[in-house]
Write a structure and sequence with these properties.
Structural class: alpha+beta
Keywords: DNA-binding, Transcription, Transcription regulation
Distance between the termini: 50 Å
Shape: elongated
GO biological process, one term: response to amino acid
Number of helices: 6
GO molecular function, one term: sequence-specific DNA binding
CATH superfamily of the largest domain: Winged helix-like DNA-binding domain superfamily/Winged helix DNA-binding domain
CATH class of the largest domain: Mainly Alpha
Protein name: Transcriptional regulator, AsnC family
Order of helices and strands: EHHHHEEHEEHE
InterPro entries: AsnC-type_HTH_dom, Dimeric_a/b-barrel, Tscrpt_reg_AsnC-like, Tscrpt_reg_AsnC/Lrp_C, WH-like_DNA-bd_sf, WH_DNA-bd_sf
Number of strands: 6
Strand order of the largest sheet: 4-5-3-6
Number of domains: 2
Length: about 190
Amino acid sequence: MPIMPTNVMLVRAPRRSAKAIAPVRTPAAESESPSLDAIDHALIEELQDNARISFAELARRVHLSKPAVMERVRRLESTGVILRYRTEVDPSKLGLTVRAFVKITVAGDRLANFARVARSVPEVVECHRVTGNESFLVQVVVRDMNHLETVIDALMPYLATNTSMVLNSPVQSARIPLPAPQPKRGTRR
């Protein structure tokens, strides 16, 4: 059974603006959660389905004017709700047919260094600091078992690894589930 597409991402400029490629973060966006209404939710849902959708089509789907949609999307970008626009790639089509999760145990004084190492290994597609016995959970995509061994060897100086191979992925989504929209201030339910 072929490996299903994973969140291997190639960052691609949307038709709207090259500025949206990089994560948009501001100090305010880090500390507070912006108030999102039903229209914001509809915009986010549409953009999660197709980040290349034109503003005109987006406006048609959410029943707003194109300028209103453009302003709302820019606000979602500037407040850090929308971080960037991505293209999902099927790694098996690139010859990367093996996907694995590597659990890594790291001594406290080497935590920051491990994160730098993980960023430098191209086969690492995700790296998460986790609770429990291990320090990090790293997802890798590789060609074959020999390639996996090479990647694990590159991560080995960090005390211990424990690897789980992915057989298949019955639930896989790049979509973020949205909480219910918040009512506008000053309105009653």
